[in-house]
Amino acid sequence: MTYIDIPGHGWWYAVTVIDYYSRYLLACHLTAGCSAPEVAAVIGLAMKEAERLHGPLEKMPFLVTDNGSCFLARRFQSAIKEKFRHVRIRYRTPQQLGLLERFHQTLKREEVYWQLYDNPQDAREKLDAFRTRYNDVRPHWALEPAGGGDVLTPKDVYVDVAQITLPRWQCWAMAAKRKQRRLDAQSG
Question: What is the pTM of this model?
Fold first, then answer.
């Protein structure tokens, strides 16, 4: 999550859920607070978006979060218990969520810093328009097609299932994929 100042309304939270492999922004929702129920509701929105695009998920997805109080709360844990494998990063290592932190910089540079939101509803509408642009229009430099060519949009990879070449710095993703395959083979 990241903070957004809405003049006359104070600081609000943009809670975001992004698919690490495709960079597809599943949810970007503005909330007045960051309590466990509010954050769990945004996670639910992301799950609905994933199921809308791909149907019922065959495997339980991983949810990677920091150690914020809303993610540690029992209400949050019980809300996601049967739906996600929850992985929290180590304390004081925000670089483990580097992709999400980098996305928040993009969100602010390409949307938030250019806007003066009239009210929270105006901010929600403009954030939703940004989400569409980010997913469907804006190519992402890390989404290089496996066969070469121009970089792809998150929609090309997440929705249209285009194959990409993972950047060298993202070897952790390949290792995680191998580990997931081993776990699936053991449980299946």
Answer: 0.85
